[in-house]
Design goal:
The protein is built from 9 helices and 7 strands, in the order E-H-E-E-H-E-H-E-H-E-H-H-H-H-E-H. With about 250 residues, the protein is an alpha/beta fold.
């Protein structure tokens, strides 16, 4: 096992098997980081990298998350993480009336999008250290749309969680970024299903998403987030406060 030099930066990324998580892990590795990642399925093309450490973790299964992540980190000593990306998430059932969302479906989304992040934050803050933490947030947690109960509630609660942790851990910077319009499976799930035409805002978003120029590839968003990191998150964001990345980029 290669030993990290004292100058090598270290990151932790959830949801590294696809989408933004995988793109961000690839970017960090290309910039010389040591990366610890977790996801339900293996990240194709990353595991052969000597600075990449991976564990199969289903973050919706809260009882096993801490044990599996601790096992991955075991043997590396106390790690001061330069960057943590809490990225893993899912939309949940396709858009439908709130009364049609089953309790178990609702709980599954909350477990992955919200509670797993608390488990990971508590572990990494108590046993290791975090300089900067990036949440994959969403405008859906700020601007509510009919049909998006599970996802919107989970993301609104994630914003609150980030604000509280920022207040209680001022030495860690919490970047709460809405990555917006990512060309991913999550967006496809958000725009599918029999009820979409019943919700005007969701139907309008589906129409916009049919033009691929409206969507951002995960690799582009990873480059943009990396650019903000290089500038300094504290120079363009407020710790713990949600920001739509498109607005941040427009402000320059």
């Amino acid at each position: 096992m290669p030993v990290a030099s004292s100058e090598m930066k270290t990151a932790f990324v959830t949801g590294v098997s696809q989408g933004f998580g995988k793109a961000m892990a690839e970017k960090l590795l290309s910039e010389g980081f040591r990366v610890f990642g977790c996801s339900r399925t293996a990240p194709e093309g990353l595991q052969a990298h000597e600075r990449f450490h991976w564990a199969a973790v289903d973050l919706s299964q809260l009882r096993s998350v801490e044990l599996l992540v601790c096992s991955m980190l075991e043997g590396h000593g106390r790690i001061e993480f330069d960057l943590v990306f809490l990225n893993a998430g899912r939309f949940g059932p396709p858009p439908r009336p709130a009364t049609e969302v089953l309790r178990d479906e609702f709980v599954d989304v909350l477990n992955l999008n919200l509670l797993a992040n608390k488990v990971l934050l508590d572990l990494l803050l108590k046993e290791h250290g975090i300089a900067q933490c990036v949440f994959s947030a969403s405008i859906a947690g700020v601007r509510m749309r009919a049909g998006m109960l599970s996802y919107s509630v989970s993301k609104a609660a994630l914003n609150a969680l980030a604000q509280i942790y920022a207040l209680e851990h001022p030495s860690t910077f919490f970047a709460v970024l809405g990555l917006c319009n990512l060309h991913t499976q999550l967006l496809r799930d958000a725009l599918a299903g029999e009820y979409v035409d019943s919700f005007s805002e969701v139907a309008a978003l589906r129409e916009r998403a049919r033009d691929e120029r409206y969507l951002a590839l995960p690799s582009l968003r990873a480059e943009q987030v990396w650019g903000l990191y290089q500038v300094g998150f504290d120079r363009c964001l407020t710790s713990g406060v949600f920001q739509d990345i498109r607005g941040v980029l427009l402000r320059g």
